[in-house]
Amino acid sequence: MILGSNSSLPAYGRHHTSQILNIGGLSLLIDCGDGTQYQLLKYKVKTSKVDHIFISHLHGDHYLGLMGILFSQQLTGRKNKLTIYGQRGLDEIITTHLKYSGATFNYKINFIELNPEQQTVIFENNEVEIQSFPLTHRIPCCGFLFKEKTKERKIIGEKIPRDFPIENFQKLKNGEDILDERGKILFKNEELTSPPNKSASYAYCSDTGFDETLIEKINMVDLLYHEATFLKEKKKWARQTFHSTTEDAAIIAKQAKVGKLLIGHFSARYNDVQPFIDECRDVFPKTLPAVEGEEYIVR
Amino acid sequence: MILGSNSSLPAYGRHHTSQILNIGGLSLLIDCGDGTQYQLLKYKVKTSKVDHIFISHLHGDHYLGLMGILFSQQLTGRKNKLTIYGQRGLDEIITTHLKYSGATFNYKINFIELNPEQQTVIFENNEVEIQSFPLTHRIPCCGFLFKEKTKERKIIGEKIPRDFPIENFQKLKNGEDILDERGKILFKNEELTSPPNKSASYAYCSDTGFDETLIEKINMVDLLYHEATFLKEKKKWARQTFHSTTEDAAIIAKQAKVGKLLIGHFSARYNDVQPFIDECRDVFPKTLPAVEGEEYIVR
Hints:
Chain A is α/β, with parallel strands linked by helices and about 300 residues long. The first copy, chain A, has helices at about 35-40, 60-65, 65-75, 90-100, 170-175, 190, 215, 235-240, 245-255, 275-285, and strands at about 1-5, 20-25, 25-30, 50-55, 80-85, 110-115, 120-125, 130-135, 140-150, 155, 180, 185, 195, 200-205, 225, 260-265, 285-290. In chain A, the strands form 4 sheets. Chain A has a 7-stranded mixed β-sheet with strand order 7-8-9-14-15-16-17, covered by helices on one side. The first copy, chain A, has a 6-stranded mixed β-sheet with strand order 1-2-3-4-5-6.
């Protein structure tokens, strides 16, 4: 769900960047500009279920809402550990606020410092892998790649013989054939199973200049969020400020053969977002605009 | 104008504490919780005209919106100096944010550290005097007293003789009689002037437990803003958290003989504000609730 879709100055009812991603049973908060707690309330997001917050970089429009969320979580009785992924310095910022607030939290904050130089796995469980990767911005900045792991093959119930040993089910789900003691194939896996559900993948490129090295990092993701701060007429200004135009975002999406492109981080100079969509679709037809309060299906 | 009227958890459309006060030609921002820049936009306040920001204390609901305002002021081309009055540590918080943002400001920030122990004049010009004074809270916390200075007497045009020397006008405005060379009264001041317009005074008590020492500090102000976080049934809880009940606020207003009482900082446990008004009016009839977007005349 999109909580904020605008760039550094809020305008036309659009807020600073923030998103909620639901994947593999997890609810993840990605970036949180000033006042994000109000957007979470407005869209009835259960912040208590968010155990991981990803902050791409330390420009105010991407993280200034974090402290408000941390204080509110304390006030609403949070006990669960909260893991925050951010650039070097975010821990110092949090600590400095806490030092003068007199507050102590009844929940643990686990801070993971991002590596802004290199693609890195930052979280993994049985269902999901999350990576950070460098973006091209004025200060250290990371994108994030969220991937469901390859799922288990689906057993076709009616093809399973009546006396089939139960301990072999996991092997089938794992894609293995069933062998006898001498290693001879008793059942070929593909006769008893069908392919797994497709795993979904989402890439988030918050603030970045045009950067072709992104193509391999986000190759063939189902949904790519890529900033498009400016229309293509402002290409020169985009280069100077390490931001992207519509065309930049669409070229990256096209070359990386992604499923769909979601654009946001619109500059406050534009009221109407339609020209952004039009310009992107000229290059990459499957483009959608980030609209606050809207939910997008990744796959 | 009230920008936020709720306490630490936003609720029922009510935001964190923030106010704009217009006095003596100045536009002053008093406290600014998370996301205050959105409230300033919503109510069309010209933030560029605000040259003084007063932060009562370092609990998040009173200052977390400050950095967003500072960054937005830079982005919208501010050049004027901005003076920020706050508790020890606020400068360190600002500096820590700036250190990692890579930002430099094209305007000067002048930080004035408040004295949380003693009533102190913190600003003065020809028209206004502003004082801070200690409140009773869990961490160092100040209230603010804004007073228009005594205004000049008004000259009654038709009573001024035709050949009256122009250099004597200021003496009349100052309340002086006009004397001849030997010191004899030529014109009695009160015959040529009428009394000045009344000077307005506003006191702001953001977060405080019941504190009778406030009475002399805010004695007879035209308008007193006093927090009333809880209804009187929660008196015990108010005492524990160094907050006030409706009754506490109304007793202070009554004993200080203020003109009107404005209450706010309502706890998120209450949806309806009417019982707050009713309970205060039982003690002090001239009570108004802080309603976001509403403007109140101080005098």
